[in-house]
Amino acid sequence: MKRNLLLTPGPTQIPPEICAALGRPIIHHRTPQFQENLKEAVEGLKQVFQTKNDVYLLTCSGTGAMEASVCNLLSPGDKAITVEGGKFGERWSELCRSYGVEPHVIQVPWGKAVDPAQIKKILDAHKDIKAVFITQSETSTGVTTDVEAAARVVRDTGAVLVVDAISGLGIIDLQMDNWGVDVVVSAGHKGFMLPPGLAFISLSPKAFKLVETCESPRYYFDLRKSKEAMADIDTPFTPAIGIVIALNESLRRMKQEGLPNLFASYARLAKGTREAAKALGLSIFTDESCQSNVLTAIKLPPEVDGNKVVKIMRDTHGISVAGGQDSLKGKIIRIAHMGCVDEYDILTGISCLEKVLLKLGYKFTLGSGVAAAQKVFNT
Amino acid sequence: MKRNLLLTPGPTQIPPEICAALGRPIIHHRTPQFQENLKEAVEGLKQVFQTKNDVYLLTCSGTGAMEASVCNLLSPGDKAITVEGGKFGERWSELCRSYGVEPHVIQVPWGKAVDPAQIKKILDAHKDIKAVFITQSETSTGVTTDVEAAARVVRDTGAVLVVDAISGLGIIDLQMDNWGVDVVVSAGHKGFMLPPGLAFISLSPKAFKLVETCESPRYYFDLRKSKEAMADIDTPFTPAIGIVIALNESLRRMKQEGLPNLFASYARLAKGTREAAKALGLSIFTDESCQSNVLTAIKLPPEVDGNKVVKIMRDTHGISVAGGQDSLKGKIIRIAHMGCVDEYDILTGISCLEKVLLKLGYKFTLGSGVAAAQKVFNT
User: Fold this and answer.
1) β-strand B104-107 against A79-84: which pairing, if any?
2) For B161-203, how does the pLDDT look when each residue is reduced to its tens digit (9 = 90+)?
3) Per residue in A54-73, pLDDT tens?
4) In the 8-state DSSP scheme, what is residue A182?
5) Are B219 and A63 inside 8 Å of each other by CB?
6) What is the 8-class DSSP label of residue B26?
7) Please, what is the angle between helix B62-73 and helix B205-213, to 10°?
8) What part of A 5-44 touches B (C-beta under 8 Å)?
9) What ipTM does this complex have?
10) Domains of chain A listed by start with CATH number
């Protein structure tokens, strides 16, 4: 009777109502019935993206939507800025290079956020830069980028700002239109509580101008096709029908809660998780100035193997958290507070972490982590 | 209490057991649990593809996997052959052009199949052709291409044969290894009875050599990444976890039935549908030499508007068939016998077609279509 609790940064827990929607009989996509669903989904997404621009649905993982923004904006030889402060920032650079664009890379130490002044400096020196690629919530390090500040330095230049908001959208604030963000990319299996397979992208008119002149080859991810289809409330290719229908369940839940309440509740969960870690004598990997409310990266003492912690929590106790990637392998664990995670899930996760730390011989006061989180959740 | 019966060429009906699997709680993909599922899926797919090569899972619609085969095999300026005898054949040409390849196009009248001698003639004249793209079952016209015969003219040349088997795999025979087919592309929402969102691709060693030297830009669809991940029983990007798990349900069903029985049963359904149409005084759009067992394209008399037939069957009676596309709009209807459709579903579809034809004033003997199909199903 093991629990199956996902405190992982994607996929996240799927609420039972959404599971039920996924199990419904299928309908055909070229029907008025499905069009109603698609229309509702796009309207709901626009609210979460905080934009008046259309939001296109792509049947792929988040990376597919990231690629869509590269191959629709940049032609070979174009100039761009990327910020590498973790695995997903690096993905922007890799994507650019795949399309013949050698980016100006801003290297940021893992655990810290980019200083927008660095972006400004490069933009000032290179007026021909077409796009700046950043990561709202860097899942590998638990860092949040100040997207509003980044937009402030990009929006009055010739460049467009492209934000990977895959793991952060609906969890931390991103005001696409108000802040002047040009492209926002997201996916269903994080804040939207869906199974993987559906991604989203929205573009400002300034960004769409680049799409129209872009010379990179693309077909499945060609956003001109998406725009054309959207005019008829359609998708250019067969969409992930089941996930689109389930998306409307998740959008209804999110609307009912309201974005400000959602953001506040994830902030509380994050604070509780951080305080729990500290009470256990552990420290937060991420710099205090940029700790994410999406997930918490906890440093482990040298004598505790993070891979073991993750494995025992999952395989023995049915509670999944993520380990560290690349140079952080074994050194951190990442507890996600995304999607339909509540304070009781966090307490469950922390109490399991305590159980495993105890088993591995780490010295601390049993119950201190849970108590610290409870304190946050009850004040 | 309207029925919701899909006799459409993708998505197809999803059996209740597969719906139930889709509604299960999610598991994380980087776990031994999911790896077991992925391993089982790949082994099962290899049986349906009738190949010893790996089959890669891509999270996208069928078109994404078609694009994967173009952008992994061909570099700009390369030479290829495409066969245009319907919308999906045309898609191969469009995809080639998107990647800087102007194909030798073999034009085939809609409703007829390509003569492999035409492919041979072009291959003989242009020794530098790298790939031949064909469509196993052309969904827009109900035509089946003789893939075995096409493979016979391609396999001893320098070119690779790429087959769009999206709508036909698991329904009509395709012996990838025995026939010497180099690339087979398919998708989950046809013969595999899944919701859209998962596609498959398998490549021969001869084809994979092209992948390694191909210079077209690609990232999400980069099959080198798929191959590398497969070595660790993994996918390069977050897969459509829920659909992969459901795929194993569908593969178990298909295995239990056995491919020869599946092929025979779809052939019987197709024959019953064709005989029903003829008994109603209608003719089959597709040339007799190449009529598909995947779907049946029925010509309507000039006085009957095919769009109306489709609309009334669906909106009034809850039974979905497909209309004609492009120049065939309003002139044909297409009844699919794919996935978990059985003879009673076909009888239901035919009886509904009779009801609607009656309403539209078409003269025929009520019951003659159903009786003709029954006769096929009972001899």
Assistant:
1) unpaired
2) 999 999 999 999 999 999 999 999 999 999 999 999 999 999 9
3) 999 999 999 999 999 999 99
4) -
5) yes
6) P
7) 70
8) 6, 8, 10-11, 13-14, 19-20, 22-29, 31-32
9) 0.96
10) 5-11+258-377 (3.90.1150.10), 16-256 (3.40.640.10)
